[in-house]
Amino acid sequence: MDDNMKESNASTAFAVKVDDLTVAYNYKPVLWDIDLEIPEGVLMAIVGPNGAGKSTLIKAILGILKPIAGSVSIYGKPYKKQRSLVAYVPQKGSVDWDFPTIALDVVMMGTYGSLGWIKRPGAKEKKAALEALEKVGMLPFKNRQISQLSGGQQQRIFLARALVQDASIYFMDEPFQGVDATTEIAIINILKELRKEGKTVVVVHHDLQTVPEYFDWVTFLNVKKIATGPVKDIFNDDNLTKTYGINYKVSVQK
Amino acid sequence: MSSAQLEIQLIASIVAVACAIPGTFLVLRKMAMISDAISHSILPGIVVGFFITQDLNSPLLILLAALTGVITVALVERIQKTGLVKEDTAIGLVFPVLFSIGVIMIAKNANDVHLDIDAVLLGELAFAPFDRLTVGGTDIGPKSLWVIGTILLITIALLIAFFKELKVSTFDAGLSASLGFSPIIIHYGLMTVASVTTVGAFDAVGAILVVALMIAPAACAYLLTTDLKKMLGLAIFFGVFSAIAGYWVAHWLDASIAGSITTTLGVVFFIIYLFAPSKGLIAVTYREKQQRIEVSLLTFLLHLKNHSEERERHVNHLNEHINWQKVRSKTVLDLALKNNMILINNSIVSLTEKGDAFTSQAINYIVTNEDAQIEDMKEDFFLFRG
C-alpha cells in the first residue's frame, strides 16, 4: 500500500480536478465552492454526515446534475469528452428492481456507452458482461430476474456493470449499503484489485470504522470540503470533529 | 363480414399496436397518468388545427395537437419543479384547464367546426371507413387507416433504433446520463411519440379509449413476464385481441365500439390480475399459504433439534405449548413426514438424519443473515412443498 501511495504522491497527474464547484437545489446550496483534486490510482472514500452533499458531488462530476458554478475536468478535459474513461455505480435504491429484465442484461448496459446511440450490443459485449459477472461471483445468477436477487447480489450486479465499462475512474455511491458481510469483503477486494491495476476509485462511504482498512485516500465533506489527502495523514479526530460537528473519537490505529 | 367491418377492425388493431408500444414504457416509468393528461389536453390543439386545415386527418393538425401534448408534459414538470405541489396534483391542474379551453373553443364555434364533445371523448370508429383517401381518383382506403398506419411505422422504426436507449434510461436514468444518453431527450422523445399516437388515434377511438389502449395492455403484460421484449409483444397482443373482441361485442350488443373495446380491456386485465402465474392474486395467495406452512415446519424442526427430552417432543405438545391449532399441527406433521424429515414413535417425534441436516443448514443461513438462500435450499430437500 505504501508503494502505491508514494507513486500517487509523486505523480502530478490528477484523475479528477474539481474547481470552485457550487451546486444548489432551488437556490439552496448543497455544495459550496468545492476545490478537489483526486490523484490517479487512489482508492478514495468520501465521508460526511447525511445531507453533506456526497452523492451530489459525484453526480455533479458526472454531469447528472448541473452545477450553478464551477468546472470539472477528467484527466485535464471536460467530462463530456472523457465519458469512456469513467464508470458510475449509483445507489442501489435509485432504480426499480421490478423492471422486467435479467442480471446479464443489466450488466450489458455497461457496454452501451462505448457503443453510442442506435448501435446494438453483440457477441463481444455479451462476452465482456459474462466475464464481469464471473469476476463478481454472479455468473450462476446471469439469467435471474433482478427482483429475485438479494440486496448484496443486486449490488454485485451494479459493480459488474461498472467493471464491464473498463474505465479508468470508478465512482460508487454507497456500494456497501444494505449488503451482507461476505459481499462487502468481495466488493472491497475487487476495488483493491482495481487500484492495483492503476485505476482510480472514488466511493461514497458511511462506515467510518472501516475507512483506514479499506481506503488509502479520504475526502471529508460537509457542504464545504473540509480536508482531502492520504488516510494515514488526515484521518484524525480533528477532521472528523470538523466534519461531523460533534466530538469524534475514532482514533486511527496505525 | 363487409369490407367496412374489416376496415374498422384493422384500424382498431393498428391503433392498439401503436398505443401499446409507448404505453409499455409509460407503465414502466410509472407515468400512466401522463397519457391521460395528454389525451385530454391535445383538444385545443386539435381545434386550432381544425380551424387552420379544416381536415381532421391533416398532418399539420396532428403535429399541432401533438405539440399541445408535449407542452402539457413540460407544464406539468414546470409546476412540479417549484416543489409546491406533487406530480399528480400538477397533472390534475394542467390538463383540465387545457381540455376546457378546447371545449369552450368548440362551443363558441359550434357552427363552423364539425366537432362535438361526444366524438372527442368516445371517437367515431364506426364512421372511420366513410372518410376515404383518394389519389388521382382511385380510392386507396380510409384516411384514418393511412394516418395511424404511418404513425405506427414511425413508432416501430424509432423503437428498433432506440430500444437500448429507452431501456437504459427507463431502468436507470443516472447511468443513462453518465453514459451520454440524455434522459431528458429520451423522455421528450417518448412524450412526442405518445402525443402523436394519441392524436392519430383520437379521431378513431376518442380520448378515453386512447388512455385505456396505452395503459391496460402494458399493465396486463407486466403481470405476465419478466422480459422487456416479451412485455412489448404481450402488450401488443392484448391490445389487438381486445380491439377485435371489443368490436364484435359492440356488434352483438349494438353498442359503442370504443366503449366495448375498453370494457374488454378491463375484463382481460381482471382475468390476468386473478390468474397470472406468478404475480396474480391467486398465485400470490397460494404462495403465501405455502410459505406460512413451510415457516411453521422449520419452526417445528428447530424445536425438535433444541429439545432431546421426550416431554417436549410429544405430538400433543404441539397443541399445548407451541400453541398451534389442531389443523395446523397436523398439516405441519404431515408435511414433515412426507418429506422424511421426522419419525413418529408412540407419539414421540424425532428428527431423521435428513431433517437434522436440513435444520442445521437453515440455522446456518439464518445466523449468517442469508435468509434468501433458504428458498434455494428447499429445492434440494423438499420432495413435496407445503
By secondary-structure content and strand pairing, the structural class of chain A works out as alpha/beta
Overall residue-averaged pLDDT value of chain A = 87
CATH domain class of the domain at 42-51 and 85-244 in chain A: Alpha Beta
Structural class of chain B: mainly alpha
In total, how many beta strands of chain B? 4
H-E order of chain A: HEEEHEEEHHHHEHEHEEHH
**Which strand order does the major sheet of chain A show?**
6-7-8-3-9-10
Keywords (chain B): Cell membrane, Membrane, Transmembrane, Transmembrane helix, Transport
InterPro entries (chain B): ABC_BtuC-like, ABC_TroCD
Main location (chain B): membrane
Organism (chain B): Gelidibacter algens
Topology diagram in text:
The complex is a heterodimer of chains A (254) and B (386).
Chain A: H1 2-10, E1 14-25, E2 28-39, E3 43-47, H2 54-61, E4 69-74, E5 77-78, E6 86-89, H3 103-108, H4 112-115, H5 123-135, H6 151-163, E7 169-173, H7 181-196, E8 200-204, H8 211-214, E9 217-222, E10 224-230, H9 231-234, H10 237-244
Parallel strand pairs in A: 3-8, 3-9, 6-7, 7-8
Antiparallel strand pairs in A: 1-2, 1-4, 4-5, 9-10
Chain B: H1 3-28, H2 32-41, H3 43-53, H4 59-81, H5 87-108, H6 117-122, E1 132-135, E2 138-142, H7 143-171, H8 173-179, H9 183-224, H10 228-253, H11 257-275, H12 281-306, H13 315-320, H14 326-338, E3 342-345, E4 348-351, H15 353-367, H16 372-381
Antiparallel strand pairs in B: 1-2, 3-4
Helix pairs in contact in B: 1-7, 1-9, 1-10, 2-4, 2-5, 2-9, 3-4, 3-5, 4-5, 4-9, 7-8, 7-9, 9-10, 9-11, 10-11, 12-14, 12-15, 15-16
What does this protein look like?
Chain A: It comes from Gelidibacter algens. Chain A: GO terms for molecular function: ATP binding; ATP hydrolysis activity. The complex is a heterodimer of chains A (254) and B (386). Chain A has helices at residues 2-10, 54-61, 103-108, 112-115, 123-135, 151-163, 181-196, 211-214, 231-234, 237-244; strands at 14-25, 28-39, 43-47, 69-74, 77-78, 86-89, 169-173, 200-204, 217-222, 224-230. Chain A is an alpha/beta fold. In chain A, helix 5 (123-135) packs across helix 6 (151-163). Chain A starts with a helix and ends in a 10-residue tail after the last helix. Chain B starts with a helix and ends in a 5-residue tail after the last helix. Chain B has 386 residues and is mainly alpha-helical. The model of chain B has no long low-confidence stretch (mean pLDDT 87). Chain B has helices at residues 3-28, 32-41, 43-53, 59-81, 87-108, 117-122, 143-171, 173-179, 183-224, 228-253, 257-275, 281-306, 315-320, 326-338, 353-367, 372-381; strands spanning 132-135, 138-142, 342-345, 348-351.
